[in-house]
Batch of 2 targets.
Target 1
Amino acid sequence: MVLISGSGSNLQAMIDAQNRGAPFRIAAVISNRADAFGLERARRHGIPAEVLSHAGYPDRDAYDADLRALIDGYAPGLVLLAGFMRILTPGFVGRYQGRMLNIHPSLLPKFRGLHTHRRALEAGETEHGASVHFVTAELDGGPLVIQARISIRPDEDAESLAARVLGYEHIIYPMAADWFAQGRLRLGEDGLPYLDGSRLESPYLIEEQPPENGEAD
């Protein structure tokens, strides 16, 4: 199950992984926006695409109750947040504790929330990246599973940095979903992530790959 609000590029990465034989099947895609292009991506591949707009709901609890009912109708083993632009209530998060993942465009715990690329540049960071984590009630604060780390170039702007990070998001998010589907990844009773039976003391790290010709882009 994948939840989106926008174009769905990480959803497409999941679809591509599924089509390559990954050990998971996307049961459905849900968006809170009817104009989200990710819905079209799902339809093109025969994946059920649902819209549950948040407009008209009196509060987050009411919306999340209906969202929970919609999700549970598909009985997914894993819920993936892929650009779902909603702050979820603690009750909703608790429902899927240990089986809900999120991808965030920063090296968490740095730069939680929005505008991560601009903030990283303004802070003078030399490295940036993306993180996959189990979802908890703390915004972008759940246990980390995997990160991709890249160097920030001297001439970098927020747009170019975002594009480079996004390419690595498309690598690490399907990896995490694959691990979970195989039973290799789980959230322990101690609230910490385990991979292949061993506690992840720090997130699994993917380093930036140099250009094939060994030269800078």
Target 2
Amino acid sequence: MRRPGRRGWAGIALAILLLVLFLKMCVRILPGDGPRRQNFERPAAAETGPLLIPVEGVPPSALTDTFTQSRAGGARPHDAIDIMAARGRAVLAVADGRIEKLFSSEEGGLTIYQRSRNGKRIYYYAHLDAYVPGLAEGQGVRRGQKIATVGSSGNANPVAPHLHFAVHDMAPGEPWYGGRAINPYPLLARPLR
């Protein structure tokens, strides 16, 4: 059997390098295990927008604006963004506030409704795998605090775990299930310059 010469090895190395670069550009699902930061630092608003990205380890470049996409065969708007991540990845509170409602539904699965500290917004986290132990309605939470884990509960595809994240502007006295949907993408992603 003949062994590849210098040119043969160079070609193989180039092919491997191109494959690795291609995979790095195409794959955005983050591993569920691996090293995690112990202390959550508050990122600068210029890096991530006014809200913290609600899935641990997800950079702004991994976000996709799916707010205006249709769902249920065009029957309803998405009114949220989906953040793809491995099952079990930490879901973090996007801002200071309190847990308004822990709820399970056929569409959203295991969900959290968090009201902002000033009461003017609801942050909705859906398709969760589990809540952190001890999480309760009325509990105060801090920006960056782990509140749940990514999953595929409800009507989510079981082979594509993700966080469905929505933001609603609330009128005074409006209940947790009300409000007007606003696009969370510009609140999370780095502003374009």
